[in-house]
């Protein structure tokens, strides 16, 4: 699943509210959102043409540091960039060794030509490309790369497609978030990476509840929806465990 786009276009106020909604649920987000497989970072290295070991990386919209920490494990010298108070506090709590600066992709608080790679994990759609693309070009060194990725449950799996349909119907009156379209003219190369994790039904539902569409909806309606989903899922997975299959869509460019 993704940051549900809903049936209606979102105005700027709603987009801002959804982007800020994560701050009140940072612990829920950090505890239940999926990570990323090693194969994703293998693909980043292949498509950028360089090792992450020793690379200067800015992870923008870093959230609670899920991608930042994995990039650091690959040997990258990571700086996390995060605008939200709650998310930044959770990142500091979970990953105190990762340098963190406060800011967003439209106004990167970073020096010119200082980075080999800029990453956006689940975050590019919150930016204004008219501002974020020039900022990427300013901050990257010559020959540097931009990597964007989104991590979605695989909709080709029947139970996931059915749940996606119920979510879409439930949220049909709510404005969505901006589309994920890639900025034009940068020559992106895109690759899909498939992976999975085994988690409990309750963890699956906690991940669902950590998405902005549910966060802005409120605790009551979200709890009601998740209770009904829990009953459905336990009928499919009576041992309370789910194998979640994911597809990470990675796009890399050299602006």
Total domains: 1
Helix content range of the residues, please? 40-55%
Lateral arrangement of strands in the main beta sheet: 3-2-1-4-5-7-6
Main β-sheet description: 7 strands, mixed
Describe what is shown at a glance.
The chain is of the alpha/beta class. It is built from 10 helices and 7 strands. Helix 2 (26-32) packs across helix 8 and helix 8 runs antiparallel to helix 10 (219-236).
Layout of secondary structure:
Blueprint (H helix, E strand, L loop, with lengths): L11 H10 L4 H7 L5 H11 L7 E5 L5 H8 L3 E5 L3 H10 L5 E2 L13 E7 L7 H11 E14 L4 H13 L18 E12 H9 L2 H6 L1 H18 L4 E13 L2
Parallel strand pairs: 1-2, 1-4, 2-3, 4-5
Antiparallel strand pairs: 5-7, 6-7
Features:
40% helix, globular, 7 strands, 7-stranded mixed beta sheet, alpha/beta, 10 helices, 255 residues, Rossmann fold
Describe it for me?
With about 260 residues, the protein is an alpha/beta fold. The protein has one domain (about 10-255): Rossmann fold, CATH 3.40.50. It contains ten helices and seven strands. The protein has a seven-stranded mixed beta sheet. Strand 2, helix 5 and strand 3 (about 100) form a beta-alpha-beta unit. Helix 8 packs antiparallel against helix 10. The model is unreliable at about 5-10 (pLDDT under 50).
